[in-house]
Every structure is written in structure tokens, then in C-alpha cells.
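TL;DR need C-alpha cells for one chain.
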Amino acid sequence: MDDLCFKTPYMKAPTLKRSYLESLTTHELIRLADGFGIEIPPDLERIFIIAEIIDITADHALNEAGLGSAETLPLLETHIPEAVPLPKQYNITFIEVLLRDPLWVFTFWEIKSADKECYEKAGDFKGYQLKVSPVDPSGTSLKEDSFTIQVGASDTAWYLGFPPGGGRFKVELCVIRGGEEVVLAVSHPFTVPTLFIPSPSKQAAGNDLYTPLAWLSGIEDFHILRNEDRRSRIKSFG
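>> reply
TL;DR here they are.
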């Protein structure tokens, strides 16, 4: 689609609607952005590429009308004739994490629809899982301390709980095929703050074991059920 590329950002820019831009492939969007002189960083998501193109074409339209740049115009109340709903999915495979507080991380993901259908129709499909792994400063996974969480085929988000000891982690989205896990996407490494500092003395008061961040997190309000506190559900026949 050679007509998508413009030779210079100073040429007359057409009016581009969001619906049209969303119909283009990512490669076509990048070519279009290049034609406007927009520098696209590697792995920039589609939604941001589209936003950049819309912004620069709006500026061109204002300049041609003699109104200057959109950044220099005063804020005015505008009427939007038609609301543009956000897409429920972007049809890409990714996983992201958001730190809610020092104890909980919100993770959300998506699997490209064509790939998802292929995985789930395969005879060796055994489901999906999240694999949480500590990482060292270089970003290498410490496999011996990792753990997995089974997630449903229709799931798109989970809250993950972390110990108060903190650390650096990453989350992998995996599909299970037969007895093997296949990594589909990996989150950026993230740091969970430390809330608990081991005391050098067993007689130290419990309040001395927590960092100031612990008081803000409200960790004292939650009772952690230890294994020795759990009551066995197996009836005793002795």
C-alpha cells in the first residue's frame, strides 16, 4: 500500500480517522508514521502509534487553516458527535503487571485469537498457566524458586500475592502442551518492596521488624494463616 507513505511531513496531510487507522496493520501504521516524520521506538504499541498519527495530522490541518498548532490553542469545550468505544481486545499476545501495593500485583494478558484457537484445538492442549520467577540483577530467572498458577482459558487477569520479604520478579504466560510448557509472553522484571526485615534478636519487639512502608500497607491488619494453624479436614479414626 504505497499510498500510505508520504514523502515529507510538510506535505498536505489528509484527514485520517481513527477507525481507518485501526484497520491498518502495524507495519502499515509504521510506514505511515515514517512518511509524516514521526520516529517510532521499537515495540511501540499500536494505540500509541495511532495517537501520534492523529496528533500530527490535526496539527497539519490547523496550520493549513492558519490557526497554529493544537498545542497553542486555548482549551475549548468541544462536542464529540460519536463516541469511539475502546476495543475489548487488541488481538496481540502480551502480559503486563501493575503493582497495586507491596503485597499484591495485578497482572493482565491477551493471546492472539488465531494462536489461541490453534492451541485450544490441539489434542495435547492442557491449559494455560502463569509462571512467577524471581530474577537476579541481570534479569536471569531463578528457576528453583519459581511457582506456577493455573488460569482458565477465558481468564484475562489475576491478582498475585507476594511475601513481605520483597524481591525482583517476572511473570510468564505459558500454554501447556502435553507435559511441556511453552512461554507465550514475558512481563518486564518488576520489584516488590521489602516490608519485613529479620531482627538480629529473637526477643526484639514485633514492631521493630517492619519497615515504615509496612505501616502504610496495612499488613498488620491481615492474619496470615500458617500451615501449623490449619485444621486438618481428614477425620481421625484413631
